[in-house]
Amino acid sequence: MQTRIVVEEVGKTYVKPTGEVVQALSGVGMTLESGTFYSFVGPSGCGKTTLLHMLHGLLSPTEGQIFFNGEKVTGPTTNKALVFQQALLLPWRNVVDNIKFGLENDRTKSEPERQTICERYIQIVGLRGFEGHYPHELSGGMQQRVNLARALAVNPEILLMDEPFGSLDAQTRQLMQEELQRMVDWKRSGKIVIFVTHDIEEAVFLADKVFVFSFRPGRIMKEIDIPFPTPRSLAIKEDPTFLKIKHEIWNLLAGEARKAMAE
Amino acid sequence: MRGRPLTFLAWVQSAYGHNRMLIHGIGSLAFGLVLWEAVDRWFSDKYFFTGPDEVIKELLQLVRDGEIWIHLRYSALEGVYGYALAAAAGIACGAMLAFSRTLDEMFSPVLIGLYATPRPVVAPLFIVWLGLGVASKVAVIFIASFFPVAINTTAGIKNVESEFRMLGRAFNVSPWAMFVKIIVPGALPFLIAGLRLGYSRAIVTIMVAEMFGSEAGLGYMIVHATQVFDIPKMMVGISMLTLWGILGNEVLKLIERRATPYKQTLGI
Amino acid sequence: MGAIHNLYRNRHQLINGTLGLLFVMAFWHWADRTVANESFFVGPWKVLQTTISLFATGTIYPHLRTSGWEFLMGYGIAAMIGISLGMAFGMSKLVREFLDPWLGGLYATPTVALAPLIIIWFGIELTPKIIIVLLTAVIDIIINTYTGVINVGQEFRMLGMAFCVPKRQIWFKILLPGSLPYIVTGLRLATSRAIVGVVVAEYFGSSEGLGWLLFKALDTYNMPLMISCATLLAGTGIVLNQGILAVEKTMAPWRDTKLQE
Prior knowledge:
The complex is a heterotrimer.
Chain A: E1 4-15, E2 21-33, E3 36-41, H1 48-56, E4 63-68, E5 71-72, E6 80-83, H2 95-103, H3 111-124, H4 140-153, E7 158-162, H5 170-184, H6 186-189, E8 192-197, H7 200-206, E9 209-213, E10 220-225, H8 240-262
Parallel strand pairs in A: 3-8, 3-9, 6-7, 7-8
Antiparallel strand pairs in A: 1-2, 1-4, 4-5, 9-10
Chain B: H1 8-18, H2 20-42, H3 52-64, H4 67-99, H5 101-115, H6 123-130, H7 134-159, H8 162-170, H9 175-211, H10 218-227, H11 231-259
Chain C: H1 2-7, H2 11-35, H3 44-57, H4 60-91, H5 93-108, H6 115-122, H7 126-152, H8 154-162, H9 167-204, H10 210-219, H11 223-251
């Protein structure tokens, strides 16, 4: 069955402890189809992470509704998984046990099954040989691999990624972008992948479709389909069409980014 | 938000929201006092238990006949000398250990060992050596407060990140400026933690040191009142020491907030 | 052994550490020679002899048993109460706001000053001593547990929520292991306080125990016995402290245990 997410006129308003009312997001509508990679790109403070958390159910919208396969999203469920911006690995668990964290809540699987699944994802994210290492012994890139494997291991229908490469160095970041396509493999598994970033190039490179967000209150300024077939190699970043799309988005965002900087 | 008509209920809610901490705090203290008085009424046996009213009466009596001043002055003298000397010596020795690796390796284990030594153990020794007067108590309080101050000073200075030292060198900072601008501010949070710990130990030690033999003082007063089962007098002594503890702690907390406003604290 | 290894991270440190200890011993010995008055000052050798004879004649065992029992009971109950209260403080805003002034007060109160009062209320049996030890030890455990739970942080709780971890499991999988190193630190600091509690409690009403023996020695100006008792008590404190410190380091290798309290 085709899974799909429908976001209807969603907005989010919250009150700061100082009493100031902030409208983070307003009038967002979109339909997300399975087997597709979506990027949300926008300046800091455009509410894209807020939207991601609402899609997951960690936050609830103050206006509008979100439906997943026709059912209203009211809270986190096991068919959605979140990849955090900071790796958020439990320091007292080694790599295997950190990857097992989400899987442990799946009562339908036995411990040996969980172990097998873990091993498969360790292989996929390329951490063979590091199973017994603790987070403080891993580099930033490796920590993000564990973060990703932890989310993939629960075999979610929706994979939500909150700027997972934000803290990596530029080269590692490039390589991780390329590898991510193989590791997630959304076309074959029919997952919906949502990737939040403020790096335009990264958004265009990874996504089948890019949503461009305005500064607060966040709205969708434009939806752009990326015509390149997947999997893509880093070489397409030099392609004229790629550069054209990149510039188009930058032109949309430049003014918004200035507003964000002035805050 | 503004301009919305303010109903009484909304006003109460917002006042509660804004002063939640304060209201709960006052409520909690009031609850404690009521509980104390209630237990006192319930235990009608005055021999064993006193309510807040009798303690205040006793305090007024002690103020009137002047006895309290003798004890307060005596203990204050011990506390001030002991703590001030410990703070000065602790910071100096701690800094010395932090700057000399060999000294640190030689004496840190000894220091940490002595730090774990329970203080009542040294009190009798100093009474034998220095007599029943103020000197022996000053020495014991010194011992009690010196170690936390020294150990925290060493830890604080060593903890100043080497990156920051490098930053100083990169800007060609003189050794003096390096000390004043980088090492002191970097070590300050630890140092203040040490001073606070030293203070709380000093207050406990006033009691412990006077317990073993003294001529006057709050601890002496408490022990003597115990021997004649004078509960209100005991409570006065305990309250005075507690008050010193709380006041000093608040003052040091204030200094801590002023000196290191960037550091998050628990509020204790 | 682990404790010693941790204390001296390399041979260089071991050599210098030993030198430091020898230096202190030599100073002690020199002071003894200079003072040369046994009712006033005794050297390390005499203390060792006295300690050995205390064990050889067996006179020390009843005292060890009494003090040990007081310590274990008081400290054990303090650990249970302290960890539960600290957890409650860390997890419930209401508890925090309602009890914070009392925690601050307890922190600043010289709890040993309450000892005579407690002896009057509960007699000179074991109970009041356990209560005194409990009171002196509990505060460090509460505060450190509290700090630990706070430090586990909101984002780890969010992680639990995001992966649909049931409420009770969040407790076992995140809050407890995350605050465990802090709890152990609290338990370590509490040992030294609990020993103070034992000695003070025995002062106010007892006929047995290491603390009592110490006072008896003071009363009779028996210097060797006094320092022997003092060394035993101090030694217990140091061994417990270093032992738990070693546990801390093996338990939480990701956290550098600094000597800040």
